[in-house]
Design a protein that fits this description.
By secondary structure, the chain is an alpha/beta fold. Helix content is 30%, strand content 17%. The protein has one domain: 3-Layer(aba) Sandwich (Aldehyde Dehydrogenase, Chain A, domain 2), CATH 3.40.309.10.
Amino acid sequence: MELGGNAPLIVFDDADLDTAVEGTLVAKMRNMGESCCAANRIFVHISIAEEFASRLAARMAALKVGPGTEPGTDVGPLIDIAGRSKAHDLVRDAVKRGATVLTGGELPEGPGCFYPPTVLTDIAPESAIIDTEIFGPVAALRTFDDEDEAIAAANDTEFGLAAYLFTQNLDRALRVAERLESGMIGLNTGLVSNPAAPFGGIKQSGLGREGGRVGIDEFLEYKYIAVPVGA
């Protein structure tokens, strides 16, 4: 029973930036961001935040928005007008509270439910976008100074479906992964879904798993037979 997510994505100062940017693009833009596993809150170490934001904004701005029937289209429409309005309202609220728009953030002219890939920085803690599942092509970036701060911010949600982290330090990767309150974690990748792996979350993100050997248990009833010793 999958009940939504508010996936954090953490980029540490020792991350390979090329890998981190491309991984973030995948984690954020799957199905135009309309994915329960989509990266919703992106935390970047302050020492690399400016360069990371610049690179991500350039990649997002280069994506072509339009109908999927048109050649070269990268980003199609959102599910409906309500979905587009929700994404735009979250952007406007963040900007009103001091966020900076690096790309996107404006409603396009013409028919349809299209919304441009958007990158925001300087997100204020009280912004609605922090606690709300965006479900759209909006990347909200915040900074952190140390590992404990990043983990605390990532876990500061009632949801726990997917999480992502980028680092070249294996010890850090395993240490952080153990502390993240999430049912699925992508290490140096923006794609966690795999039919061979158990899919599901913790906290308010669901109950049980599907996929992989673990998922088979959800379709079984176990029978226990007690046999006395010597019987």
